[in-house]
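User: Hey, my collaborator sent me this sequence without any context and asked if I could get a structure. I don't really work with proteins. Can you help?
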Amino acid sequence: MDYYSILGVQRTASQDEIKKAFKRKAMQHHPDRGGNQEEFKRVTEAYEILSNSDKRSAYDNPGPDFQFNANQFRNGGNPFAGTPFDHIFGQGFANVKTPRNSDIHVKAEISLQDVLKGKDAIIQYQTRTGKLETVTVSIPPGAKNGDTVRYQGLGDDGYHQYPRGDLHVKIRVKKQHNWERDNDNLITKKVTNVFDLLLGCVIIMNTLDGKQVRLKIPKGTKSGQVFNIPGYGIPNINTGKRGNLYVEIDASIPNIEDESILREIEDLKKKIYK
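Assistant: No problem. I've predicted the 3D structure and written it out in structure-token form, which is a compact way to encode the shape of the chain:
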């Protein structure tokens, strides 16, 4: 079998010429493009031998008792790297996928408020051909920091005869002062004065999405106690059901310099802890 003739190159061809010839032949004979599978196998076999200097030398200079066995020359190189056929090498002929353009990976920064309702983000990126793309992608409610959302058909378009790749948008959620996220729950702190904790009160909580809820603080509440407000957390990205809002109460200690007030507090302390 003349591997040089199969690839259509001279016996003096360089490795670059062999690689380019193989790419042309492989695309011409690939079964998914209507080519002949047996011819595709022969082209692949020829490249596997001629692309390796040692195996090519053994092929070019066989000994007197040489018997060629193609299997002993198989290697793992990928001549399709950088082309729409990048993924087919090494998969076998039965599971070859239809070629398409490469995927593009970008990042999108959103706020914690955006996570509550979702966001239509404007993304700009450049394809391999230099074309500047501007698309609007919908980031779903409940997206987590580090999540990647895939948008089919918005990727690279360098090879016009093949379908576009996909666009992968990695989410970065900006930190929000006094707010933390724990899965689908939100955690915040509320500062109130020590007397409200002693006597009990009702405080108004401003939620992350701009609503107001009433939170009853029982008398004798200690600083650091956590209250749970159901349904005001983050929506689950799959079910849409919102988690809980956990509010940690922090006592504010007044700075009192008036001596008469301090004496009254001292008298009160003696009555409480008599």
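In plain terms: The first helix runs from residue 3 to 7. You can pass these tokens on to your collaborator as they are.
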